[in-house]
């Protein structure tokens, strides 16, 4: 990675580092931005604004989903957006900024009516992209949409947008930081409530603001250190500024360390926690997977050993994303095919964030129940298993088969939940327990500090922390300043913002340098 900073030490296998999110920008779906455009302070002037620097062309695209629908949103961004509106609409004047107006749309070449549509005019820079933007809310039939797209293509200076180009322009014009762009991408792809909440928080800039605050601390510290290098410890500098810089850097190290310890949570929230359903044959594992995923993912049969391979399905579990795996029943003395299934089940168990251990409540004394209890359940619950950070929920299934006095309890049985996949009894309790476990695994996006949702975030925070490990001003001020620069570079790359000129500003603003 040519963009990597000259950091003190590379990390990752063989020095490989996660790439900057160029592909994210490119792949980001085209987003409907009426809401976005309305977020920016209304502009009092009307008419075209000056073209934003660096943007020559005007782009257009269908921003709502493909296919037949009630309303489709087509939008443009760039200096010719006003011209596009005037060319297609009758009357030909621009509507007032940010006000939806009903207009007849015509093909500018043939004058053929295309639709009666709502149009909106967002003069830059107060728009989603920072450029002049227009939106056409047309009827969502394919012929209308293709007619309007063709008409826009015939306006001089307009061309179809590339994937993600609107967002890319918003980033280029400083409307979104990189972490906000990632939040926007996550929001578009959010499938569960928790993912949506997390993405919205990131889109609102929480992670960016946190990093920005850290970067400011480093900038201040760097300014202090550089002032010492340039002016020395004489009367020209306020007393104690270097000590203050040192303590701020040490506090920052502690904060970064705490966030890095939490890093897996955010990534789990983005890509789903690994929840593995395991247990002896015939306990009802496949029935539970089908119940939780609300679809027939696995074959259910009274014959023990039906599931032979690992079956994985993405599910929304109590508002959290999870990859739910059904596994072969764990038992010994079986044929080679089932044996391979057992081996795969055991491997998948090792990778689980959360084990949903299923036992047949009416068969707790069988040897397979006993073995599973002593080889998987108890070691995991007591923390003596190899993957000691794993969590486990014990489910006693088939409660409908129990006598009224309850299960024939095993003396070693840890805390359990009673369930009947057949009747659904106990499902609410299980979902509530799952919600708590997954909130602990993924972090609660409604509260707490912003989560690091991508390997890229983790990489840059780790890089920042590693660099601060080389901050030793008592030994060598020049090397200490370099460590701060490297650390700051990582934070700047995380948010996609950051400059060097602000250090000079601070030196002359916050210091009493010279008399
Ligand atoms: N009475 C009762 N039967 C159940 C319940 N859950 C599952 N069963 C039955 O138990 C049998 C085994 O269920 P499965 O879901 O296939 O069990 P499994 O653990 O996936 O089995 P293997 O694939 O052999 O490991 C089937 O006949 C199910 O209908 C339940 O809550 N009550």
Automatic annotation (TrEMBL):
Family: Belongs to the TRAFAC class TrmE-Era-EngA-EngB-Septin-like GTPase superfamily. TrmE GTPase family.
The organism's taxonomic lineage, starting at the top: Eukaryota, Metazoa, Chordata, Craniata, Vertebrata
Cofactor: K(+)
Protein's UniProt name: 5-taurinomethyluridine-[tRNA] synthase subunit GTPB3, mitochondrial
GO annotations of cellular component type: mitochondrion; transferase complex
Xref: Gene3D superfamilies: P-loop containing nucleotide triphosphate hydrolases (3.40.50.300), Probable tRNA modification gtpase trme, domain 1 (3.30.1360.120), tRNA modification GTPase MnmE domain 2 (1.20.120.430)
Organism of derivation: Catagonus wagneri
InterPro entries assigned to the protein according to its UniProt record, in alphabetical order: G_TrmE (IPR031168), GTP-bd (IPR006073), GTP-bd_TrmE_N (IPR018948), GTPase_MnmE (IPR004520), MnmE_dom2 (IPR027368), MnmE_helical (IPR025867), P-loop_NTPase (IPR027417), Small_GTP-bd (IPR005225)
Function: GTPase component of the GTPBP3-MTO1 complex that catalyzes the 5-taurinomethyluridine (taum(5)U) modification at the 34th wobble position (U34) of mitochondrial tRNAs (mt-tRNAs), which plays a role in mt-tRNA decoding and mitochondrial translation. Taum(5)U formation on mammalian mt-tRNA requires the presence of both GTPBP3-mediated GTPase activity and MTO1 catalytic activity.
A GO biological-process term: tRNA methylation
């Amino acid at each position: 990675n040519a963009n990597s900073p000259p950091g003190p030490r590379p990390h990752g296998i063989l020095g490989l580092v996660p790439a900057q999110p160029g592909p994210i920008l490119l792949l980001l779906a085209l987003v409907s931005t009426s809401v976005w455009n309305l977020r920016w302070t209304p502009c009092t002037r009307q008419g075209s604004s000056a073209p934003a620097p660096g943007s020559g062309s005007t782009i257009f695209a269908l921003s709502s989903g493909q296919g037949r629908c009630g309303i489709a949103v087509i939008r443009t961004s760039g200096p010719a957006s006003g011209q596009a509106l005037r060319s297609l609409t009758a009357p030909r004047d621009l509507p007032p900024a940010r006000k939806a107006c009903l207009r007849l749309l015509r093909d500018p070449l043939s004058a053929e009516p295309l639709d009666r549509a709502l149009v909106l005019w967002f003069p830059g820079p107060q728009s989603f992209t920072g450029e002049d933007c227009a939106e056409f809310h047309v009827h969502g039939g394919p012929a209308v949409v293709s007619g309007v797209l063709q008409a826009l293509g015939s306006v001089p200076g307009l061309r179809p947008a590339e994937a993600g180009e609107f967002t890319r322009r918003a980033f280029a014009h400083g409307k979104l930081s990189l972490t906000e762009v990632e939040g926007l991408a996550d929001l578009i792809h959010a499938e569960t409530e928790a993912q949506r909440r997390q993405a919205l928080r990131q889109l609102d800039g929480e992670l960016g603001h946190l990093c920005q605050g850290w970067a400011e601390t480093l900038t201040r510290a760097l300014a202090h250190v550089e002032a010492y290098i340039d002016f020395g410890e004489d009367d020209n500098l306020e007393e104690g500024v270097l000590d203050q810089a040192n303590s701020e850097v040490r506090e920052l190290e502690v904060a970064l360390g705490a966030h890095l310890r939490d890093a897996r949570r955010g990534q789990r929230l983005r890509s789903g926690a690994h929840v593995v359903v395991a247990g002896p044959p015939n306990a009802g594992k496949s029935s539970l997977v089908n119940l939780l995923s609300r679809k027939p993912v696995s074959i259910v049969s009274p014959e023990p050993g039906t599931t032979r391979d690992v079956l994985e399905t993405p599910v929304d579990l109590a508002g959290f994303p999870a990859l739910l795996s059904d596994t072969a029943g764990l038992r010994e003395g079986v044929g080679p095919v089932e044996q391979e299934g057992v081996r795969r089940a055991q491997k998948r168990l090792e990778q689980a964030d959360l084990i949903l251990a299923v036992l047949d409540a009416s068969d707790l004394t069988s040897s397979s129940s006993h073995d599973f209890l002593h080889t998987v359940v108890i070691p995991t619950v007591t923390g003596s298993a190899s993957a000691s950070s794993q969590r486990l929920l014990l489910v006693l299934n088939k409660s409908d088969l129990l006598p009224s006095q309850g299960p024939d309890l095993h003396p070693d049985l840890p805390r359990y939940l009673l369930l009947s996949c057949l009747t659904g009894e106990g499902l609410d309790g299980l979902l509530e327990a799952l919600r708590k476990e997954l909130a602990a695994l993924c972090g609660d996006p409604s509260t707490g500090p912003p989560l690091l949702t991508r390997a890229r975030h983790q990489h840059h925070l780790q890089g920042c922390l590693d660099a601060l490990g080389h901050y030793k001003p008592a030994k060598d001020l020049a090397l200490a300043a370099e460590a701060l620069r490297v650390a700051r570079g990582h934070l700047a790359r995380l948010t996609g913002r950051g400059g060097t000129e602000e250090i000079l500003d601070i030196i002359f603003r916050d210091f009493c340098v010279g008399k």
